[in-house]
Amino acid sequence: TTEIYTLSLHDALPICASHSPSASEQYNRSMKLTQEFVAPHPREFVWNAFDDTELLVSCFPGAKLIAVEGDGTFSGEVSARLGPMRMQFSGDGLIIRDQSLWQGEVKGKGTDRGSNSHVTVNMRYQLTEERQGQETLIKVEVDYARTGTLAQVGRGPVLEEFVRQITKEFGTNLDEKLQRSDRKSTRLNSSHALNS
Hints:
By secondary structure, the protein is an alpha+beta fold. About 30% of the residues lie in helices and about 40% in strands. About 20% of the residues are buried.
């Protein structure tokens, strides 16, 4: 994957020296992440890969898919370590796709009972053709809110580095799985051509 992504993080309620956060501000924060990278595959090929919920979830480090329903809903778990905290989130989500616009949305929410932390995530992605359709620009925007213990420790350089690593691994894993799927498709097409 050729990465051209930019990453921007911000607390919805930033803390500065002249501002003492209230209890609600300390325990309820939101953040936005934007990422762009180029995959060396045609747009339709990438679109079909994004339709594979199991493949998509497996690209996220620590994620495990539990169940997928026919209406676009799914449930799963995510294991993560942030500084001294080791968390195990369980939750569910919904996938919405619109091929006429080549864009989709993944909504999810999860709870880590050990730290009493809750996370709500809304991820939107847009696929755009590059180099006369030979490559695909993947733009991802993620908005998420966190409450509980995670809202206190999950901010600043620690969280920024954590998100940078997650996004880098997601892009790498996605590209590897697309390459693997592409090779499998090529072998199947070659086999059909030989047998015809």
